[in-house]
Amino acid sequence: MNEFSLIETYFHWNSSNLVNLGIGDDCAVIDIDANYQLVTSVDTLIESVHFPSNTSASDIAYKSLAVNLSDLAAMGARAKYFTLALTLPHTNKKWLSQFATSLKSLADEFGIVLVGGDTTRGALISITINVTGVVEKNKALLRSSAQVGDFIFVSNTIGDAAYAWKQLQNNQAPSEYVINKFNRPKPQLFLGQQLSDIANACIDISDGLEQDLTHILTRSNVGASINLNDIPLINEVKTYIKKTSDWCLVLAGGDDYELCFTVPVKNMNLLKALQNKNNTKVTQIGVINDSMVLTKIGSFDKPCCSYQHF
Ligand code: ADP
Ligand code: MG
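Structure tokens for the assembled complex are given below, as produced in the milestone run.
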């Protein structure tokens, strides 16, 4: 049983009227008043599963909050507050001080406030963060609203973090640039907010481009074709792919925390204006169609295995 059928079988309960959008998207959307909705999500990072044991306290703190902020970004939300459940094998003042300083600095950068949590002892470091943000009513970006004819985009570059992880596993030393992308993914909150009037559908790429784009396709009842050669890659990753043809690194490596979103043709000029205004790097990689499947155009059309917990 994989994690998605586990959730579907045991936890996909009917939700009350208050819940505008429940399980199945990057965040849940809850009605609060006539003008705004709460947007909320929780993610856990566990030592040796999500980060190697020798990761610094400061990087662990950054990544734990950043991956949660990334889910708010995928909804086009503004971050408001978060809770922190911290499990540690023992207390260490230096570790805690570095963890707290890094967490606060990222929280301040995005204007999100720590309002509570829980602290426990356990065998491995485990960090669970629940973030809450707000969107204007019915403005949340969803996985389920892609339309046939939409162009598919991704932000920045894909595969950087997966390349760092691959090198670490092979006892090679990753460049500072890629290890930083792995440890400190920059949440695309501002991009997400600006896309809420431009994009039809959006998801953040946490498990790999192929699997996460497929979530958009499944929930929107559409298909897509993407061109592998259009996927934006840094030179290091390009060279690696040239040598190995290991496209799975890019398609299924995960840990990108970039946004994948679809834009209707009528909004392309708005997207162009956004690109020029903020120097935002977004790249078109394909188009939504009615085929119900994902077609990969390029030198490679094999299935890749995205990360799954079960
Ligand atoms: P993401 O990668 O954006 O964090 P996931 O793939 O982890 O999202 O989860 C898919 C959906 O299933 C989300 O809407 C999430 O809230 C929901 N979900 C995951 N685990 C559980 C659970 N144990 N109980 C209820 N809902 C869950
Ligand atoms: Mg997500």
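The chain has ten helices and twelve strands. Residues 57-75 form the longest helix (19 residues). Further analysis is deferred to the final report.
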